[in-house]
Amino acid sequence: MSPACPELEQLDAYVTDPSMSAAPVREHVAGCADCQARLAELSENQVLFAELSDSASLLGARLSVLKPPPRQMGAFDIVREVGRGGMGVVYEAQQKQPQRRVALKVLRGDYASSDERIRLFNREVRVLARLRHAGITSIFESGVSTEGPFYAMEFVEGLSLSDYAKQHDLSLRQRLDLYLKLCAAISYAHQHGVIHRDLKPGNVLVEEGGVPKVLDFGLARITDSDATGVSLAMDGGRIVGTLAYMSPEQTRGVTDEIDVRSDVYSLGVILFELLTGALPYDVSRTSVPMAVRSICESPTRRPSSAAAARQGDARSLQGDLDTIILKSLEKLPESRYQSVAAMAEDIERYLANQTIVARPPNAIYQFKKFAQRNRVLVGGIAGVIVALGLGIVATTWQAHRARLAERTALAEASISAEISRFLTTMFGSVNPVADGHDVRVVEILKRAATDIEKSFADQPRVAIALRDAIGRAYQSLTLYLEAEPQFQAGWELARNQYGDASRQALQFQYNLAEAMAHNGKTDPALKSLNSTLEAQKRQFGVDDADTLTTMHFLAVVKVEQGNLEAGELLLREALAGRTRSLGPQHERTLDSMANLGILLNRRGKNTEAAELLHRAHDTATRTFGPESTQAIVFASYVATLANTPEELAAIEPIYRDIVDRGSRVFGPEHSQTLAFLGSLAQLLELRCEFVEAEAVARDLYDRLKKSRGERDPQTINAMGPLARLNGMNKKWKEAEELMRRMLALCREVFGEANSRTSDVMYDLAQLLKSRKKLPEALQLSQETLTRYISSQGESAVDTALTRGLMAETLRQLGRLDEAQPAAERALADLRAASSTDDLLTAWAESNLGTCLRDQTHYPQAEPLMLHAHQRLMARLGECHPICIESNERICALYRMWHAADPTGGHKTQAAEFEANHANAKRRAD
Amino acid sequence: MEWLTTTTVLDRLHDANDHSAWSSFVERFRAPITTFSQKQGLNLADAEDVAQETLMAFLESYRKKAYERGRGRLSHYLFGIAHNKILLARRKIAGREIQVSTGDDGTSFWSAVPDPTQAQEAWEREWRQATLVQSLEQVRQEVSSQTYEAFRMVVFEHLVPAMVAERLGISRNAVFIAKHRVGARLRDLCAAFNEEQ
User: Fold this and answer.
1) Fewest CB atoms less than 10 Å from the CB: which of A242, A490, A555, A895?
2) A53 and B155 in contact by Cβ < 8 A?
3) Which contiguous run of DSSP H or E holds residue A332?
4) How crowded is residue A57: how many other Cβ atoms within 10 Å of its Cβ?
5) How does DSSP classify residue B69?
């Protein structure tokens, strides 16, 4: 521009109205290209400004946002704007007297115009002014400025919890210590009657010294009438950020239900994020209604699973920390910690290596007894094997969880406090030096159990809660023998205190029955479960969670007892009930679905079984993630669909993957991992990989012995398969020693009358028979038979199997006239029992055929033996020892028949089977 | 806040962990969609839901490559989604109203809704305003608070430059320079914004 060009002001005036400009200006611009260009720009500006100005009324609040920060507000010099939320603006300011740096929070224009909000704001300020805690930003003063009502508080400069932890590379313990400081601040506020209601990382800053400061205390309270709406309406990306930390009751906008436990929930989310780097529910890319639904309805994933998914440290979160966080994130406030202090105490207990008060929501059940049992004919041949996956699994982690959520009466704070005190005393009373270093939880529980009676004679409700807690603790350690008397005593107390048909009494009755079932007391357990179920149906209805839990477990026990048909009906009913009341994706619904799938597979209804098992697995993977307990367990169920040798070969890598995933997710000595290992051993055995199967069974036994001790029921159970596989690999001496040791342990641990003891006697008799110690085998099998007849009845499956064993022993002793009727009866009883596995019946046929053969009744023997052989081959393949033995028996049949009748063509038949036999043996070797 | 071009924001949206890109995206487009939805007859809560759902739906289709920059203006694409979401919301609301109303007296929700054919025009207006406001917000962050304040007083409070100069303790010429500087930057940003869409 040349010096002669008009000033900007003159050009501006020219643009507004050229006619009003002085003549020299008009003349200049007419001939000046620079000025023309400038005028064009100014003119465009005018249009823009007019547009903005016209929009001012429409833009309303949005334009007010664009106001620059005030330079001064009363005694405060504004330095800069530091934040802006839905309701207010925060400025950094310098207070003149006293000289200090403050944060000024000003209620935003549109909110400041409501009298009601101003009244609430003032009330809030009064309440907050009383809070004086190192972890809470203090309010210095408040007032009303031209900008609106405001308050001044301590100015905090710091990082969010997670950023601080990351930047300082804090260890797990350091993170928990930091978090405890936060809990202390919130707990202090709660004690002063103030609930935060909007706890989220943005509201917690950690100062350089590592002190977390809680900001925005009570701001949410201002929005009483629309706590949800306002928080959700916060600007931009913060919508979902805020939502993720809200408790279910907050997301539903039920303001009446919001109390300290809502803060417990938000703190739980903060801890989840602090330890895993992820949120419990991924709501970051979902719509608000869907996010609310996730928070209110979806099962919370385990922190350890979330950490594993991010390659974080899943192991250290497993167990107590998972339990603590999940408890704080329970959907129902009454199931959460009842105070922040209670949650903090549990974390402190965890840090001090003490037992936490929260119970694990997922005490995982084991594969059931009969899947692990050695219903096997160990022979020079081996025996009939319970096929992989015969066991029905009762994963009662869901049941525990359900009971936990619904057990409101026992969760009273006073009772919890008593329990807490009592257990603390108990733990304190153990002197590691005097008691030796190996002070185990079990000993403490034992001590606690004996003290209940005298300590709480006058406080039955506390005694009931303690019996419950100790019983469940034993149960989660799978120490059912110890759990049983606790539940028995608790049941009696609960009946007196609350009545026979009360929820509490019925829960004890259920727990007692469950423990009894585990301890082999099947009949009384069944009776008790039946009466519990009837009472629960009457009291709470068929769709009640407790009723359905009992129904599910009753089905499991019926199946275990051999009553597959009744089991199927009950499982179908439980599945329908759970689908109705809990929804098709609920973990308990999936549990019933998967168990029904296993049962149907066993009953030969393969198509429906496969459909159910795949559906359960797919849903669990989708809902809880591929590394979740449910997904892994259900994957192992899907693997049980394999039946033929080819299918078994195909699933072996899948099974190995399941074991790997189990080790990774649960830990190598976790009961669930060990159960997978046991299944892998069974699979390898079915595949005739005896050497490897033995190695796996040995590994399993060693891990159990190391982690649980030799006398633990699980350890004892693991001895059976190992002994059997020792036998398969011709290590007879080792097998016999192990089996004898197992029997002695059973007698000591389970008791002489226990059915498990009978089972082991049977297995030992088998082994002795194969070692040709026939007289001792006969004596033991006769003894076992008497026991089964009295405990299970004349025609029960176990009785029939034992009778078959006795018959075979008698045959080998040459007492054929005694052997034949026993073998006939055994086969008839097995055929009559619809539940009997086909392999067992086939083997009984082969036994009877052999018996008839030895009596020279060849034409009667032949069809039985061929039929049996065909079925055994179809299931096990030609190189399985059972099939080799069966083949050998048939060879002998034709050789003997040919000797008796050389013209019958039996030599050719013998040659054919001999060739098969040679092939199979070669391949097996 | 760091000023990101729409292109940058969209590029960064591909990264699921880039929260600041998502924030910028939401910051930029949520307000016009909400206001547009309100003008289409929804209340604030429903309008906010529509905005949220529209942005989520956009994100999803963008990540699936259903939207490509070269094939059309972003504003048109978003309009398509928003319009559908509004129709869905209306249906839902109509359902709610039928449940509580006893009969149609001609003032029901549906009759209060503007003609959908006018929606496109309304959208364009809203989009333009959003562009202006966002550009203005950016300018405010770029210029000194005194410059912005001078501009604000002249344009929004319609104060004469002399008074503004006096209040702010600056020369009259400085007021004009401030107004011009803000205007120039505003034009640049709006133009860039429009070009990008």
Assistant:
1) A895
2) yes
3) none
4) 8
5) G
Q: How far apart are CA B98 and CA A556, in angstroms?
A: 50
ipTM of this predicted complex?
0.75
All residues at 6 or more sequence positions from A611 whose CB lies less than 8 Å from its CB, including other chains: A597
Q: Which residues, in sequence order, are CB contacts of A345 under 8 Å at separation 6+?
A: A357, A420
Residues 150-169, chain B, touching A (beta carbon < 8 A): 152, 155-156, 158, 161
Torsion of CA A264, A265, A269, A271, to 10 degrees: 20
pLDDT tens string A354-411? 666 665 432 222 222 222 222 222 221 111 112 111 222 222 222 233 233 333 323 3
Full-model pTM: 0.40
Collapsed DSSP state (helix, strand, coil) of residue A64: helix
Condensed to tens digits (0 to 9), the pLDDT of residues A349-367 reads 888 776 666 654 322 222 2
Q: What are the percentages of helix, strand and coil residues in chain A, rounded to 5?
A: 70, 5, 25
Computed on alpha carbons and rounded to an integer, the radius of gyration of chain A in Å comes to 38
What CA–CA distance (Å, rounded) separates A535 from A543? 13
Nearest-by-Cβ selection for A8 from B149, B176, B187: B176
Which residue matches tokens 């992989």? Answer: A388
What's the distance, Cα to Cα, between the start and end of chain B in Å?
A: 21
Q: Quick one: A899 exposed, middle or buried, by C-beta within 10 A (0-12, 13-18, 19+)?
A: exposed
Residues 6+ apart with CB under 8 A from A301: A280, A281, A624, A625, A628
How far apart are the C-alpha atoms of A843 and A836, rounded to whole Å?
Answer: 12
CA-angle at A715, arms to A710 and A717, nearest 5°: 130
Taking CA atoms, what residue in A is nearest to B59? A285
- CA–CA distances in Å: residue A213 to residues A204, A341, A827, A884: 6, 17, 77, 75
Three-class SS state of A424: helix
Q: Looking at the complex, report in whole angstroms how far the Cα of residue A53 sits from the nearest Cα belonging to chain B.
A: 6
Rounded to a whole number of angstroms, the distance between the first and last alpha carbons of chain A is 104
Which of A288, A293, A294 to mutate to test binding with chain B, by most B CBs within 10 Å of its CB? A288
> What mean pLDDT is reported for chain B?
74
Q: For residue A231, give every residue at least 6 positions away whose Cβ sits within 8 Å of its Cβ, in sequence order, or none.
A: A86, A198, A220, A223, A242, A243, A246
Closest chain A residue to B153, measured at CA: A67
Among B30, B155, B161, the residue with its CB nearest the CB of A236 is B30
- Whether residue A98 is preceded by a cis peptide bond, meaning omega within 30 degrees of 0, is yes
Amino acid A746: pLDDT: 87
Closest chain B C-alpha to A616 CA, distance in angstroms = 28
State both tokens at A263: 């803060």
Both tokens of A887, joined, read 């083949």
Q: How many CA atoms lie within 13 A of A745 on its CB side?
A: 20
**Does residue A854 carry a catalytic annotation?**
no
User: How far is A66 from B138, CA to CA, in rounded Å?
Assistant: 10
**Rounded to whole angstroms, what are the CA distances from A913 to A44, A335, A893, A916?**
103, 67, 10, 5
Under 8 Å between Cβ of A323 and A359: yes
CB contact under 8 A, B140 and A51: no
Out of B22, B45, B155, name the one closest to residue A52 (CB). B155
CA dist., res. A408 & res. A503, Å (int) = 10
Q: Which strands sit side by side in the sheet containing A212-214, from one edge to the other?
A: A159-160, A204-206, A212-214
Cβ atoms of A525 and A514 closer than 8 Å? yes
Category of A277 on φ-ψ map: left (φ > 0), alpha (ψ -120 to 50) or beta: left
Indicate the residue type of A19: S
Q: With beta carbons under 8 A apart, name residues in chain B contacting A58.
A: 129
